[in-house]
Amino acid sequence: MPQWHPHREQKNLPDEFPVNPLFSRQGEVTIPRLRIGDQGMLPETAYQIIHDEIALDGNARLNLATFVTTWMEPDAKRLYGESFDKNMIDKDEYPQTAAIEERCVRILADLWNSPNPDTTMGVSTTGSSEACMLGGLALKRRWQKLRKSKGLSTDRPNIVFSSSVQVVWEKFANYWDVEPRYVNINPDHPYLDAEGVINAVDENTIGVVPILGVTYTGVYEPIAAIAKALDELQEKTGLDIPIHVDAASGGFIAPFLQPDLIWDFRLPRVKSINVSGHKYGLVYPGLGWVIWREKEDLPEDLIFRVSYLGGNMPTFALNFSRPGAQVLLQYYNFLRLGKDGYYAVQKTSQENALFLSKEIGEMDAFEILADGSDIPVLAWKLKEDYTPNWTLYDLSRQLRTYGWQVPAYPLPADMEEITIMRIVVRNGFSRDLAHLFMVNFKQAVEFLNSLDRPVLKDTKYDNGFHH
After folding, report:
1. Residues bearing N6-(pyridoxal phosphate)lysine (predicted)?
2. Strand pairing class (270-276; 243-246)
C-alpha cells in the first residue's frame, strides 16, 4: 500500500467544509474548496479560515532547507507595510523608488568591482531566477550579433555549466533553445573546474556559468581558474567566451567574508553577475539583481521603452508589474548595516554553520562534505555501511517531528547514488537555536538507532530538496 503523503491526500479532502459558527454570519454555513462561492463573507471569517489553515505550515524560523530570508527586524517590517503597494515598473508614479533602485544597482556594481560602477547597466528582478534568465539572454544575443557580423551560423548555441547547477539554467536552455552542456561532477571533481569547461566549449558556446555557492553543498566553484583557462584558450584559438557568474547566494557573502577572493568584475572575462536579494541580501522573498560589467555588455536591443505609464520608461525584465517594496528593503539594509554590519551578520551565520558541522562531524554516523567555510551552508552524508535500518530521508522526517525542516536529496548525475543532507544557516538562526537543534538532532539519531528493523518507506516521496 502506498505510504501516506500530504500532497496526495489534499485531493481527497471534501469539496465543501463548514465554517466555525463563532465567526460566521447568517448564510455562512459551508464553503466550496475548489470554486469561488456565489456570495462573499465577513472579512473576519475569510481571515480566520486562512489563518487556521496556514497554522499547519512549518515554522519559518525552523526551516533550515531554504536559502530565502525568513526574518527581518521590526523597522524593516514597518517599511514593508508602508510600501507593499508600490509597482516597480511604474517609475513615473514612484520616481523615488525608481531612484533608490538605481542607487542599489550602483552599490552592487561597486561592491563587485565594476570598472565603471556609475554607468554600467543593472536591474532588480523578482528573484535570482529571473536575473539568470536576463543574464543568459544577454549572452545569447551578444553571441548571435558577433556570429552574424562574421557571416557565421547562429543555429546551434550552447551554454556550459556543471551538473550541480540550479534548475533555472536548465529552464533557460529549454525555453530559449540553447543546448545545455553539463560538466558532470564526480568525487574527484565535485564542482565545475577549468578542465571540464575547456573540454565542453566550442565556437557555439554563448557563455560559461560557474556558481559562487553551489545549491547542493554551498561550495564556491573556482571562477578565477576557469577564467584563466578561457584566457589561454582565446590566445590559442581566438575563441572569446564570456562568463556569467551565478552568485545567487555568494554575491552577498564573498565581498564581506572573503574580500580577497577573485571571482567578480576584477576578472575581465566576467561580463555579468546575478544575486538573490532575498537570500543573503537579507530581504524578504521577491528580489533579485543582475549587473553587467560595463554598459556595452548588455545589448541595447534587449531594452524596451514604453510610454503608456507616463514618460518614456526603459524596461528590461521578463516581468512587467512587480513589487517595489523589496527594493526599498534592500536599500534599507545597505543603509542600516553598511559593510561592517553585513560582515557581522554573515560572519555570525558562518560561525554557526561551522559549529553545526563540527558537532555533526563528531558523530559516528556522518561524514561532512561541506562545513560552511564558503557560504554558511553545511552538507553531510551517512557513512557507508553505518546502518541498514535507516537513511537520511528517515532522519529528515524524524527531525520534522520536532518542527525542523532539513532536506535530504541525491547529488546530480554521476553521483546520484549519494544522498546528502544540507542546512542553510541564515540571519535569525542564533547560536542558541543551533544548540537546541543539536539536542533534537541527536535525539532523532538515537531514536533511529534504536530500531531493530528497516524503516518502511515509499521512495517516490523521499526527496526532500528545497531551493
Report:
1. 279
2. parallel
Domain 346-461 class, CATH top level: alpha beta
Q: What is the C-alpha separation between 459 and 397, in angstroms, rounded?
A: 13
Q: State the sign of the Cα–Cα–Cα–Cα dihedral 54, 58, 62, 63.
A: negative
The three-class DSSP label of residue 121 is coil
What is the Cα–Cα distance from 29 to 268, expressed in whole angstroms? 66
**Sequence-ordered list of residues with C-beta below 8 angstroms from that of 304, at least 6 positions apart, any chain:** 314, 315, 316
Contact 140, 178 (CB under 8 A): yes
Q: What is the pLDDT of residue 45?
A: 83
Q: Give per-residue pLDDT as tens, 242-266.
A: 999 999 999 999 999 999 999 999 9
Share of residues in the chain with pLDDT > 70 (%)? 91
DSSP tag of 251: G
Does the domain formed by 75-335 have CATH 3.20.20.220? no
Up-side HSE of residue 252: CA atoms within 13 Å toward CB? 35
Q: What is the DSSP letter of 264?
A: S
Q: Where are the domains of the chain?
A: 6-43, 75-335, 346-461
Question: Which three cell numbers mark 184?
Answer: 558532470
Cell of 65: 532547507
- How far is Cα of residue 196 from the mean position of the Cα atoms in its chain? 24
Residue 8 pLDDT grade (very low, low, confident, very high; cuts 50, 70, 90): low
Grid cell digits, residue 209: 556559468
Q: Residue 7's pLDDT band (boundaries 50, 70, 90)?
A: low
User: Which residue is associated with the grid cell 571562477?
Assistant: 223
Cα atoms in the 13 Å half-sphere on the side-chain side of 271: 24
pLDDT tens digit sequence for 339-395: 999 999 999 999 999 999 999 999 999 999 999 999 999 999 999 999 999 999 999
Residue 427's identity, in one-letter code, is: N
Burial of residue 304 (CB within 10 Å: 0-12, 13-18, 19+) is: exposed
Domains 75-335 and 346-461 share a fold: no
**Residue 123 DSSP SS3:** strand
